[in-house]
Amino acid sequence: MIEKTVDYTHNGTLLTAYMAFKEGHAERRPAVMIAHTWEGRSEFVCDKARILAGQGFVGFAIDLYGSGAVGSSAEENARLMQPFIDDRAMLQSRLHCALDALCTQPEVDPLRIAAIGYCFGGLCVLDLARSRARVKSVVSLHGLLGAPGNTNDNKIDSKILILHGNDDPMATKDDVFAIERELTNANADWQLHTYGNTLHAFSNPNANNPAMGTVYNEAADRRSWASLISFLHETLV
Prior knowledge:
Blueprint: E1 2-10, E2 13-21, E3 29-35, H1 43-54, E4 58-61, H2 74-86, H3 88-103, E5 108-118, H4 120-130, E6 137-141, E7 159-165, H5 173-185, E8 190-195, E9 208-209, E10 214-215, H6 218-236
Parallel strand pairs: 3-4, 3-5, 5-6, 6-7, 7-8
Antiparallel strand pairs: 1-2, 2-4, 9-10
């Protein structure tokens, strides 16, 4: 396994992605861009990059906040995330910059790229698809679902998989109905898998805050990962 960091810049901000891939492959290979939670580019998403590398992909955990910054509290996480929620066009521009950085890596086939994201990162990868980034597919895991408002007339070419907890307080049933309408109107090839009795952050073993609605669910984690891997092989391999 080869692991390295990749620096790139957006609007003067230095960003540092984490990249992992198996050595010994001469040919370019499919890549999976991984968008982080509101916490930042933490070990959680770097570990996903390593696991995906073990599956034969290039794993590329992006950095949205700059210099690999990771929040240390809910308050700091919210402070780091909020500017991107408030300015979705800026978020989309930064995501496209990360995608460009991934596409320039010599190990990567730029025609076979997917993007997955967790929580805030789920919103990010949906915005990649909404803004017509050249990604074959996107997967949102317990993601925020709200539309950005600047992509309403866009057709969506990326295939989309949304993995969602039925009781997620941060993505309500109204949000689910809204994105179903949005994706259908955009003529997208989309799926939405809902896990019963499941809250937000269901794939994070460290999530254990029922008051906030963030609780790990082993069954939903296992089932969603199996769906994700199947979807990546369908759309990239």
